[in-house]
Sequence to fold (189 residues):
Amino acid sequence: MGRAGLTPERLTLAGAELADEAGFDQVTLSALARRFDVKVASLYSHLKNSQELKTRIALFALEELADRVADAVAGRAGKDALTAFANAYRDYARAHPGRYDAARFRLDPQTAAASAGVRHAQMTRAILRGYDLAEPEQTHAVRMLGSFFHGYVSLERAGGFSHTDVASQESWAWTLDSLDAVLRNRAAP
Fold:
């Protein structure tokens, strides 16, 4: 394939696919050029460097994940919303491991503030409103949920739960039940 049809958007999507196949750390302009059978120099008219490519993939992944979570939680509240949010997050990490890693890519503050990462926080806070948490409890809960989701998914992906007869799904459900109980218990009087 030649240069025809290359755009920043097409290169971003191809980079996201490459991240899922080979790992986000393997995404480079050289690897992308090989994918399109072009010279690396051909990509510089569309992307400044690998940093821009990785940033674009991160923004794409954040947007894609936010859309999935929003669809999952629409019309739900309380534990149902919490569970839908958590399951959408976990399912995305399983289906798109490289994109999931990209969503954790460190963005500069201005880019982060304009990204779908803001939607993630807003959706988490919307779910937590159903638990009637006042500040600073709500901020603590946002951090707790983010830490739990990321930690569980990361350990699961690394095979950390494959050493016992208890299925990972059982522990996932148990932990979501526990998180719901903790959040209900911390509600404002």
User: Anything to note?
Assistant: Residues 50-73 form the longest helix (24 residues). The mean pLDDT is 93.
